[in-house]
Design a protein that fits this description.
Layout (H helix, E strand, L loop, with lengths): L1 H7 L9 H10 L27 H14 L5 H12 L3 E2 H8 L3 H14 L2 E4 L6 E4 L1 H6 L3 H25 L3 E2 H8 L3 H13 L3 E3 L7 E4 L8
Antiparallel strand pairs: 1-3, 2-3, 4-6, 5-6
Helix pairs in contact: 2-4, 5-6, 9-10
Amino acid sequence: MLSDALKRVGLAEKTGRGIDRIFEGSLIYGRLPPDYSASTTATVSLLIPRCEPDPQLTRIVSNEQNRLGRPLPVNALLVLNLLRDAPKSDIHQLSVITNLQEAIVKTVLDNAIETGIVEAYGIGRGRTYMISRKIYEGRGNATGYVRQKDIDELRYPELVLNLASSQKYISRADVINLLHISGPIAYRILKKLSEEGKLESVNKGRYSKYRIAAPQKDAG
């Protein structure tokens, strides 16, 4: 049969992994994924974008596959490609873009963290992820890691002040929700802004609230 002949020469298989293989062919080289969006119930339309491979991501995938002794699953390839282009994404964002269930995305990320490919920041639903420091350093691009990790942190005070300007009071919980960070980090940001005279506390204790500090009047 024709299908058997195609299988013998490696152009077909009986396991139903044809679509996965097409995706793998693009993703292992860091290219854009294939596009099936023009397909209908009657026809299948496949667009494979023509673009240059990403040698850095290709090296990451190759090194990890050599370490494991097997190919990376297509779901892992999808997530890695997205984190390259959208670092500090959370599980929900990755789930929406990849069209994978959040439980599947979480499993992929947990495995990637365990092997050191991915790092996590924050806690709970606000936890975000990015490709790890060792991967960037192995790519000779340690500055890329620092840039992606720290650029948001440099803007934290500005973002908190913008939030405080838009409402009467803000709390530590508001800052946690805004920046997807832990309670102690949120407290330190609020404390520093208070010490700098940019915010003022309107009450004390764990549930204290803050507002934009009143302008200082000139002496004399």
